[in-house]
Design a protein that fits this description.
By secondary structure, the chain is an alpha/beta fold. The protein has 2 domains: 107 residues, Roll (Nuclear Transport Factor 2, Chain: A), CATH 3.10.450; 241 residues, Rossmann fold (3-Layer(aba) Sandwich). Helices cover 37% and strands 22% of the residues. It has 17 helices and 16 strands. Helix 10 links the parallel strand 11 and strand 12. The longest helix is centred in the middle third of the chain and has 18 residues. The chain is globular.
């Protein structure tokens, strides 16, 4: 793999595929679940689809085993799914924590229909319940009843005019609005990646909890040609921050009393800087799979994750040489910054971005902030990025953290043969209701 290819891959939405994740299966040693309940539930559904009925049997508690010997599991699965064709994806997973265990609903999309499969887990992590229910596969792609979408213009009449949608309840607007800020790359207002639409899912979920949502097309999605006219001096101010601040000003003009930023990926990384630049317009923020580390550090990790036994030495050398440039930024002249690159990204852009230390800015703020991440995120790392947020903000009042088992960078189910790679984004998915509920609880409870 050439240096050019490695860097280009790393810049695809600033994210690349890591080594394939291992599906967690029930343990032969103790007949229990050798993973989180969420990961086990996904593995068990795919095991049933493959005809490996014994996997579910081993995962059950004694009461369920007496009710469902392996033959009965096979019969139940066949009766409920045989006429539906192939399993396409688990398009949504909802999780409810109960006093005596966990309930997980998995919305399984088949070729000819949808089946909601419920799995209950007891306090020991053993399957204590199984249910099947039909559902309309199109339901998550329809604007929910009781909501309406209003077209808005961001930067109206200017060179950087952008289309947006403000989602509210039909009964009228709330006094609270959340503004969704995109990740890296040219994203539309829905956050479309293949068949998934993460921002639309959030925009349709929160208003049902009393929180209106503004989402808008990203500047690089709409005005790419105009941006290239002065690309050498392009920074995150023009790419993201200016429009996010303009969005808050627009919502203030609409009469909203409380304005919350929801930043995803790079938007989550920039959330503290955006709030600071807004000069009090934003009352707090939610960071979805953001990071307090620099973009260059994350890209370095992503490149190393691509390394194989045969090319590791070369990739390691390339990564180290690019990281060395990061340490030289302060000594470069403006001319050098405009002519050099780091991981093919203009050094001028990188210098501007690293000047906004997300962790340092967040630590200086006295506002509510929520940090969310999926455990199966292979693009921003739970063990490095999420844990770094917790380390920097340890003991800080108003900072909350939540990690979701089995969810990926889009807060959707990590699944399939290509789990742990960008290939899993070709499967249709939706943000789980438990994620929406947690965001709503944070906003409603703090503002």
């Amino acid at each position: 793999m050439s240096k050019k290819i490695i860097a280009a891959v790393a810049l695809t939405a600033c994210l690349v595929a890591a080594a394939a994740a291992v599906m967690m299966l029930p343990s032969d040693k103790n007949d229990g679940i050798a993973a989180s309940n969420e990961e086990a539930a996904v593995s068990l559904i795919y095991g049933l689809d493959r005809g490996e009925y014994v996997l579910l049997y081993k995962a059950m508690n004694s009461d369920m085993r007496s009710q469902y010997p392996v033959g009965n599991i096979k019969t139940a699965w066949k009766e409920k799914t045989n006429d539906l064709g192939d399993l396409l994806s688990i398009e949504r997973m909802n999780v409810a924590e109960e006093k005596d265990g966990t309930g997980i609903d998995l919305y399984c999309a088949f070729e000819k229909g949808g089946k909601k499969i419920g799995l209950a887990f007891d306090a020991e992590g053993l399957v204590s319940g199984l249910s099947f229910e039909d559902y309309d596969q199109d339901i998550f792609d329809k604007l929910p009843a009781g909501l309406k979408e209003n077209s808005v213009k961001l930067n109206a009449g200017s060179k950087w005019e952008l289309n947006g949608n403000l989602t509210t309840r039909t009964g009228g607007p709330s006094d609270t609005v959340a503004v969704i800020v995109h990740g890296s790359g040219p994203n539309d207002m829905d956050g479309t990646i293949g068949p998934t639409k993460i921002y639309r899912d959030i925009a349709w979920g929160l208003p049902q909890c009393g929180i209106d949502v503004l989402r808008y097309d990203k500047r690089t999605y709409v005005h790419g040609a105009a941006i290239m006219e002065d690309y050498a001096k392009f920074t995150v101010m023009e790419e993201t921050i200016d429009d996010a601040v303009a969005a808050a000003k627009l919502m203030e003009s609409y009469g909203y009393k409380k304005i919350i930023l929801i930043g995803h990926s790079m938007g989550g990384m920039l959330a503290p800087a955006i709030v600071r630049e807004s000069k009090g317009l934003y009352d707090g923020f939610v960071s979805l799979a953001g990071s307090p580390r620099t973009l260059v550090e994350i890209i370095a990790d992503q490149n190393l994750a691509l390394a194989t036994e045969t090319n590791y030495v070369f990739i390691k050398f390339f990564v180290n040489s690019e990281l060395a440039k990061l340490r030289q930024l302060d000594s470069w002249t403006e001319e050098e910054l405009l002519s050099k690159t780091i991981f093919t990204i203009p050094a001028y852009y990188i210098k501007d971005m690293v000047s906004r230390d997300a962790g340092e800015i967040a630590a200086s703020m006295d506002i509510p902030m929520l940090f969310l991440q999926g455990s199966a995120d292979f693009q921003v790392y739970p063990e490095k990025d999420f844990e770094k947020w917790k380390e920097i903000l340890s003991g800080k009042e108003g900072a909350e953290f939540k990690l979701y088992n089995g969810l990926n960078h889009l807060f959707m189910v990590s699944q399939g043969d290509k789990a742990g790679t960008t290939g899993e984004y070709t499967l249709k998915g939706h943000v789980g209701q438990h994620v929406i509920d947690d965001i709503a609880e944070f906003i409603n409870g703090n503002f």
